[in-house]
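Feature request, filed as a ticket because there's no other form

It would be nice if the structure record came with a short human-readable summary line next to the tokens. Right now we just get the raw output. Example of a typical job, pasted below so the devs can see what we mean:
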Amino acid sequence: MYYAATYFTDKKKDKQIISQFLTYFQLHNNKFSFYRIYRKKLTFSSVDKNQMWNILVLLNAEEEEYYDHFKQAFNNYRTKLVRQETMLPTPGSFFPSNEKNGNIQIVEYVNVQQKYLLEFKNIMIHNNGPAMEHILHTKKWCKEFIALETADVLYHKAGFPEWNQIHLIAMRPSGVFHFKKDFNEGLVRVNAPNFADNFDRLEQIREFTSKVSASREI
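Raw output as currently delivered:
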């Protein structure tokens, strides 16, 4: 189980809170098998640009008490919280990497219509996951692909748009020019619908609450 905390802070205080996060993980990194901090840089799309996020923290620990320890340590920032949630990796769509330098970091908050959640998951398992794995292992311009599904919403600030998936992508800038061709090639390899048909269906059942480029701070 993963824990995600999304914050909306004054940009002038970004460095302050991120510095405190970094110090925390330096002291307590042995408690977590996975921890990330992202800071929003450039917004590609958003359903509401006035209600956005700018810091995302992701954690994974074997002991539930470590999540409580983190939440207690940053209780003073509760007024800055947009959302706290537990998340599960989408099967076949979890390819993490420690390589940060030289990559464009993309964070997608995805909102799938509730009645299509199972269909979306199946598309990820049978189409998108294998296509991204093909790109990661064969084309190599994409370095990381992580898809997480909301398991339980612990807190969501009133007035902020909803989501039920978070996707993380780390890619070389050149990937922008190869994405469609290489993704379609990956779909063909697993006898999935072609690129146009696959993404036409996704357009019908999900939207991006926000899609941004971000800096990965840790």
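Something like this underneath would help us a lot:
The chain has a mean pLDDT of 96.
The helical segments are 14-28, 64-73, 117-139, 175-189, 195-205.
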